[in-house]
Design a protein that fits this description.
By secondary structure, the protein is mainly alpha-helical. 45% of the residues lie in helices and 6% in strands. It is built from 12 helices and 4 strands.
Length: 253
């Protein structure tokens, strides 16, 4: 026997009042940078499954073509060679390291710079490096012409290191590099570093005369030196003069 009481179904409005509200998505919180991030730059993993070698140097490094690896230390990083550097053929390793100087990502930046330096420190490096100068200079030129300041600094350091090892044989190739050096010589940020590098090139390579393959109409004067904060003693440096000629002279073929 029915009680006669009828239960009305809930309307859509009533359901919406009683049903729980869906949770709104929380805004993504951007992680704050850690102080240690400055000491540990973002590292490329060349062995990662989805990583793509961005350059020829990175591809060679990933395939094990460079017989040294970066070892992270608590204070400073270092290279660990798979074999003695004295036993490593300079051709093509030294050229590969020179081409890697224009890299901008870690660990390629450290491996190329430190590897180039350490390879030139081995016994007999002079005799091994001199025949490679025609192929080394274009790689150094690419680093010196790079827009990245750190790349230019690595290229400049490598050029001075190479000059200290090979000496005068490098002089014949300097004409390919002085244009890039002269541009940075006009930059106040790099003027002192570039000037010191040019002086070391003269020290290691001896006196270098101005180019003879064209006539030079020179506007090089002492008052120009004053505006660029170069002393009269530094003006007498032939390599400095040659570098300045690229900026302050007219060439006639």
């Amino acid at each position: 026997m029915s009680s006669g009481i009828q239960i009305k179904p809930k309307t859509a409005v009533q359901k919406s009042k009683t049903s729980p509200l869906p949770c709104s998505p929380k805004p993504a919180i951007k992680p704050q940078p850690k102080p240690s991030d400055k000491l540990n730059p973002k590292t490329i993993n060349p062995f990662g499954a989805h990583s793509r070698p961005p350059s020829a140097f990175a591809a060679i490094y990933a395939k094990g073509g460079i017989p040294c690896r970066l070892v992270h230390g608590s204070v400073k990083h270092r290279l660990q060679w798979e074999c003695l550097p004295e036993t490593v053929p300079f051709d093509p390793l030294l050229i590969t390291l020179a081409e890697g100087l224009k890299e901008t990502k870690h660990p390629y930046t450290f491996v190329s710079k430190e590897g180039f330096k350490e390879l030139l420190m081995v016994e007999g490096a002079t005799e091994k490096a001199i025949p490679l100068l025609p192929r080394l200079v274009p790689a150094l030129k690419a680093a010196l012409a790079h827009s990245d300041d750190e790349v230019f600094g690595r290229g400049l350091d490598a050029l001075v290191q190479l000059s200290a090892v090979v000496g005068p044989p490098l002089n014949d190739h300097l004409k390919h590099l002085l244009t890039n050096l002269s541009r940075r010589l006009m930059d106040k940020k790099f003027r002192e570093k570039t000037t010191v590098a040019l002086q070391k090139l003269e020290q290691y390579g001896g006196k270098v005369s101005c180019p003879d393959d064209y006539s030079v109409i020179c506007t090089f004067e002492c008052n120009f030196a004053k505006t660029t904060s170069i002393s009269a003693f530094q003006i007498m440096n032939p390599i400095l003069k040659t570098a300045y000629f690229h900026v302050t002279t007219v060439y006639i073929a």
